[in-house]
Specification:
globular, two-stranded antiparallel ribbon, single chain, 450 residues, 21 helices, mainly alpha
Length: 450
């Protein structure tokens, strides 16, 4: 039996036709609106009824501290209640003036807008055009990541906003608006630092204008913008305390301000998975006294584990760059895969990568769905199904599955599958150009001016 998603059986084709009809689209829009409304209303009701409001209380307290001129970060050797950059605290100040309920309402509205924007940008990047796309491109990826999306609404996390900003930057790069691309990535990094990793990609691809734009915009957001409100000395002290406590804090005990969580089952980054698999560290996550849990297969030194992580990083980086087409061979199709690979690498190498962050997989799954709808590809299909099954293990075996890095390994499978797909696309395109007797530079239509 041959796997041929491009040539589908009659029942499946009929269902797809119904979904893409006007009635099917209206039904799906109504369903999405209902889900979105529930996601938005639940955190607000929790606040009104006096239930736990999760991380929203941290955002409220931090904003109030800024309004009162208090200390955002405590002195050295004290735990940070708020771990994000000082610029993020400044953004929260006017929102916190609305009160707890007002802050939650504003943030869920922002999350809702970011989710919708991420969906639209994902489909646009995956298809390479603005025309009406197959409804399955909207349905399938969101069904896969909906649990992670819900986590962002419930906890009050900004992962959807960060995703929307990153995808907006990719759209800007595709449109040769490099200044805007740099500003959008800087905005994401000013909220939560790890999107700054994308600067490595910009430099490698020689997006010099975008790189300079990112650096200038980020400097303005984290240094210049807080100064009128906090004063130069205090703004500088805020940045120094945050950098020392977050960016430059990594040792045997863990990463940054959450040492008890960084090596626990909650952290799905390569740093967390490698440390608990290869060192005898507690993978259990409970504050206070508790029974430690060890799941390591080896008992290596901390430095040795870091060397292994660096080697893996180099290997994945070489795989990424090796699969990339040359500048004059890039197309919207290849760029869609390339951007997806970049997002997955960022998820893998972010020091603290908790569940809600994997709402970012919305875009890679959109790209994969588009590829499978257009071309028969058993390898991509198999890897994707395996990744989805790994992610699904979290439902029946929440702690056990994440302890052994199911989300990390699912992301790794998606990276390998998309890297192979991009390499295959590059090879196929080069072969076609040679067989037609046309130079690669003439055969392709560069997206960006050289």
């Amino acid at each position: 039996m041959t796997f041929t998603p491009g040539v589908q059986s009659s029942p499946l084709a009929a269902l797809r036709a119904r979904l893409n009809g006007d009635a099917g689209c209206r039904a799906l829009v109504a369903f999405f609106a209902t889900v979105l409304l529930v996601f938005a209303v639940v955190p607000i009701l929790h606040c009104i009824r006096g239930h736990s409001i999760k991380d929203y209380i941290v955002w409220y307290d931090t904003g109030q501290l800024v309004l009162r001129g208090g200390e955002i970060y405590p002195p050295p050797f004290h735990k940070f209640p708020f771990m994000y950059p000082p610029s993020c605290a400044l953004f929260l100040a006017p929102v916190s003036a609305l009160g707890k309920t007002g802050l939650i309402t504003m943030l869920v509205v922002i999350n809702a807008a970011a989710w919708i924007t991420s969906i639209l940008f994902s489909v646009r990047l995956a298809t390479g055009n603005r025309r009406r796309a197959d409804v399955l491109l909207y349905l399938i990826p969101n069904l896969i990541v909906v649990v992670y999306v819900w986590g962002n609404f419930l906890l009050g996390q900004p992962s959807l906003l960060l995703l929307a900003l990153m995808l907006g930057a990719f759209v800007a790069l595709r449109s040769s608006n490099n200044v805007l691309a740099g500003v959008l990535i800087a905005g994401a990094a000013a909220i939560k630092a790890f999107p700054l990793i994308a600067i490595v990609y910009l430099v490698y691809r020689r997006y010099w204008i975008a790189t300079i734009s990112l650096a200038l915009a980020l400097g303005f957001l984290v240094v210049a913008l807080p100064t009128p409100f906090r004063g130069y000395s205090r703004a500088r002290e805020d940045l120094q305390r945050w950098a020392n406590g977050m960016l430059f804090k990594y040792d045997e005990t863990g990463v940054a301000q959450r040492t008890e969580r960084s090596n626990s089952w909650k952290n799905q980054s390569i740093w967390g998975v490698a440390n608990r698999m290869l060192r005898r560290v507690d993978s259990n996550f409970k504050y206070g006294l508790h029974e430690p849990v060890y799941v390591n297969f080896a008992n290596l030194r901390f430095s040795t584990v870091n060397i292994i992580v660096v080697i893996c990083g180099i290997a994945l980086g070489l795989a990424f760059t090796g699969a990339m087409p040359r500048r004059d061979q890039r197309t919207p199709e290849s760029d869609a895969i390339e951007f997806a690979l970049l997002l997955i690498l960022m998820l893998i190498f972010t020091p603290l990568s908790f569940g809600y962050l994997y709402a970012w997989l919305l875009y890679p799954f959109t790209v994969i769905t588009q590829r499978l709808l257009r071309h028969a590809n058993l390898l991509l299909f198999s890897f994707t199904v395996a990744a989805i099954l790994l992610l699904a293990l979290t439902i029946p075996f929440r702690i056990w599955a994440q302890t052994y890095g199911n989300t990390f390994f699912a992301s790794l499978l998606l990276f390998v599958a998309l890297a192979i797909e991009l390499s295959r696309l590059k090879t196929t395109r080069g072969t076609e150009n040679q067989s037609n007797g046309i130079s690669a530079a003439r055969a392709s239509v560069p997206l960006y001016p050289v």
